[in-house]
Amino acid sequence: MASRYPITFFYYDDLAPISQFYEQVLGLELVLDQGVARIYRLGEHSYFGIVDGQRGHLKAQPRSAVLLTLVDEDVEGWHQRLQAKGVAGLSPILRGTYCEHFFFEDPAGYALEIQRFHNPAVAELFR
């Protein structure tokens, strides 16, 4: 089954500080505000949503067990911007075998990562 596009949803107790983080700190484009959920564009055909955990299908969890990875060529620029904004849980830039990346947290403690693949052929697989 082929999907037209993915939307990944995270659930929160309070959307106000979370929407501010994704819109003002990360600069994600808000595509749709449904009240109970806000959906953002991550790429040409990929989306991410935040949901009111009191009203949505699932409930907010006390500890995140997921990682949202955003792929971007400007890992250093992202790291500098997030450091300047005092984002929580910001790791140093890590240079691994396959990618350069770093981790951080949103205001509710969900884990996020920004990475760049070393191998251009691998990066091209995801374009």
TrEMBL record:
<dbReference type="InterPro" id="IPR004360">
    <property type="entry name" value="Glyas_Fos-R_dOase_dom"/>
</dbReference>
<dbReference type="InterPro" id="IPR029068">
    <property type="entry name" value="Glyas_Bleomycin-R_OHBP_Dase"/>
</dbReference>
<protein>
    <submittedName>
        <fullName>VOC family protein</fullName>
    </submittedName>
</protein>
<feature type="domain" description="VOC">
    <location>
        <begin position="3"/>
        <end position="117"/>
    </location>
</feature>
<dbReference type="InterPro" id="IPR037523">
    <property type="entry name" value="VOC_core"/>
</dbReference>
<dbReference type="Pfam" id="PF00903">
    <property type="entry name" value="Glyoxalase"/>
</dbReference>
